[in-house]
Amino acid sequence: MTTSEPASTPAPPAPQRSKGFVIGRVAGAPVIVTRSWFLAALILTILFVPNVQAVAPELGAGAYLVAVAFPLLLFGSVLLHEAAHALVARARGQNVTELAVTLWGGHTAYTGGLGRPLDGFLVAVVGPLTNLALAAGFWWAYQASPVLNVPTLLLWTGALSNALVGAFNLLPGLPLDGGQILESLVWAVTGKRNTGTVVAGWVGRVVAVGVLLWALVVPFVLGRTPALTEVLWSALIGAILWAGAGAAITNGRRREAIAGLSAAALAGPAVLVPLGSTVADALNARTAAGGGSSSPYVVVVGHDGAPVAVLDGDAVAAVPASAWDLTRVDAVAVPFVAGSGVHPEMSGTELLTHLAQRSGGARLVPMVDAGRVTGVLDLADVARAVRAA
């Protein structure tokens, strides 16, 4: 059971929703039961039947029907776990996109970018704490039951399963909730979230290996041979954890690389011409600045120095040389989108978020420092830098 936060991109796509059945909404997001959950429910029902038959042998074949209560009980626990994630995530300023119950438990997805270590810690810790609280409640009710029957069996199973789920999710490695808690702690100490992600990812790989070793070593310590089914399940869970940890390490390193992207480093130089200038004036200014046929950018500015437009090379090439002195630059320039300008010190996710929200689909945006244009940023260059990162 995990929470996930998609990484930022220059033009983030709409979050992709898990496939399944929508049964309601929590924190403004759909609650989805995936098709794989029904497979898990079937397996859990079959595994739980012998326990029901041991307590109530008189049920006969009806034990299968009663055993369905166990996956439903576990479903409710998972749903409360994910709802806790979702509600706290929204309270911390995140946009929750979905809660999904799956074959392996569930996940809560949200966007918005965690701003502080405390945000990540609180969003992560509430899920396991919810399970531990449920375990305590089920255990109290079980202890208060005078006889052992099917209801008390379910109470005992609810206490055990929630305790195991809560404790397992607190293991300090991504993609588990405990991994996000570790990530937040390292982030708080180092001031770098990316460092926390990478550290928690490597610890997650250790946890993945530990899950398999637990199934192999513990039985020998107890003097018995490891059961094949336990080893296979542990190997499968370990493989899933290993893959999730690897993805976390990759995301952490990618975010670190993206954090190094800056507007000042990516922008091209610009030469300025006032509004009303001719094409000849613009080309002369570019030549005087030492530019070739395509650089530096020629930026048209207003009387206050604010960027108005950027010269379009193709449009200029269509103007005969004999008409350069007669054609004004505003006739061969592409207007900048209002408010799209970036500051030279913008970098990382701040820069990418600004471009995604303010560029308006334009390819070129001005770089402005203290009211003066100092360069032009080509979003194609930004996209290439992001892909390289």
Automatic annotation (TrEMBL):
The keyword Isomerase does not apply. It comes from the Bacteria. Binds 1 zinc ion per subunit. It is a multi-pass membrane protein. The keyword Zinc applies. Keywords: CBS domain, Cell membrane, Hydrolase, Membrane, Metal-binding, Metalloprotease, Protease, Repeat, Transmembrane, Transmembrane helix, Zinc. This is Zinc metalloprotease. Signal peptide: none annotated.
